[in-house]
Structure formats: structure tokens, C-alpha cells
Specification:
0% strand, 214 residues
């Protein structure tokens, strides 16, 4: 670790900047998601029924938005859980975190592809690939930080570390499986993503029970 890294770690400045840019990217990505929702243009004298009918035709866009919003929330929550244990940072952790954010920033782009081509298998695979890459780099970030406990709280017990590593692996596994399902039915593959939320809730419950400080 360089002298600059050690100095930033002692002051907390370096870690604060990592969290600040992370929250900024999440806020930006979530904001861009809603911009793809289009207000229907109706002719003069249109009725409420006409507006409702026009809005109902946009259900795929609304579903894509809700799906990506929830997934972005999943990553943001997991990111916070990871950094709850991290007490220091160095250049490697910063780069791993930036590579994670790279895929988060691309979420609106792949959401738009999924919205417009949700029946195409390649659209589902591209979206799932983006999310898998995000999960891999997030998992690598915590694995690197927890390796030999050099960047995490040294009083955290091993069981809690293993539970966090397991929780980080859940989402990427689900997205990889969904790629295979997309070859059978792209729509079922997208619905499959929602199944990971109860699994994550279970892993988080296990993590809370295993969390102890030596």
C-alpha cells in the first residue's frame, strides 16, 4: 500500500470518496431509468378512457422500469452492506469499485434494450450479462477487502465474512441461470430474476445471525 493510500485510509477521506462516487452513480442511473417512460400524446378532446388505454400499452416500459429500479436498489443495498465492514481502501479496491460502477452506469442502456426488444433472447442475455458483470466486480471488491482482513474490521468473525461472500454470489448466479432460461423463453427468464429477492432476504437473515465481533 502506498503512503498516499495509508494516509487516505487513516483520515477516512479515501473511503468517503469511494462511497460518494458510488452513491452518485446510483442516483444518476436511477434518474436515467425514469426518463425512458413516455407520456402518451393524445388528440384534442381525448377522454380519460383514451388516456388509460394509451398508458396500458406502455406496461412493458413500466415493468422494465420497476425491474431495473428494484435491481439497482438490490445492488445499492448490497454495496452498503459490503462497505459496512470495510474500514480502509487502497488503489486496487478503488479500481474494483469503479469497474462495478461501470456496469451500474450502463443499466439504463440495457434497460432500454430490454424494454424495446423484451421478446428477443439476445436482449435478455445482454441485460443479464451487464448485471452478472456488476455482481462479479462487487463480489471481487469484498473478497479483496476481506482477504487476510487487510481492509475490513479485524474484529469481524469469519462466519459473517463467509455469509457476506455468499450473499454477493446470489445475484450473479441467478442472472447466469436466466441466460440459459432465455434460450427457452425470454419472458420467463426476466420473471426468474424476481426469484432472487426472497433468496437474498434469506442470506441477509443468515448474515445477521452470524455477525459477531471478536
Amino acid at each position: 500500500m502506498t503512503e498516499e493510500d495509508e494516509s487516505s485510509g487513516r483520515s477516512g477521506y479515501g473511503l468517503d470518496r469511494v462511497l460518494a462516487i458510488s452513491d452518485g452513480v446510483f442516483a444518476f442511473a436511477i434518474t436515467l431509468l425514469v426518463l425512458d417512460l413516455v407520456v402518451p400524446v393524445l388528440s384534442p378532446g381525448a377522454s380519460s378512457a383514451d388516456l388509460w388505454q394509451a398508458l396500458s400499452k406502455e406496461w412493458v416500459s413500466f415493468l422494465s422500469y420497476i425491474t431495473s429500479f428494484l435491481i439497482a436498489g438490490l445492488w445499492w443495498n448490497a454495496h452498503n452492506r459490503n462497505f459496512r465492514y470495510i474500514r480502509n481502501c487502497d488503489s486496487t479496491l478503488r479500481w474494483l469499485n469503479l469497474l462495478f460502477l461501470l456496469w451500474i452506469a450502463l443499466l439504463p442502456f440495457f434497460t432500454k434494450i430490454l424494454d424495446q426488444y423484451h421478446t428477443l433472447q439476445i436482449a435478455v442475455v445482454l441485460y443479464a450479462t451487464d448485471q452478472t458483470a456488476a455482481g462479479v466486480f462487487m463480489g471481487l471488491s469484498f473478497w479483496y477487502a476481506s482477504r487476510n482482513r487487510h481492509l475490513i474490521d479485524k474484529n469481524l468473525n469469519g462466519s459473517a465474512i463467509r455469509s457476506r461472500l455468499l450473499a454477493n454470489a446470489v445475484a450473479p448466479i441467478f442472472f447466469i441461470i436466466s441466460m440459459g432460461i432465455s434460450f427457452i423463453d425470454p419472458t420467463i427468464a426476466t420473471y426468474f430474476w424476481f426469484a432472487m429477492f426472497p433468496v437474498l432476504a434469506l442470506t441477509h437473515s443468515m448474515e445477521r445471525k452470524s455477525e459477531k465481533w471478536n
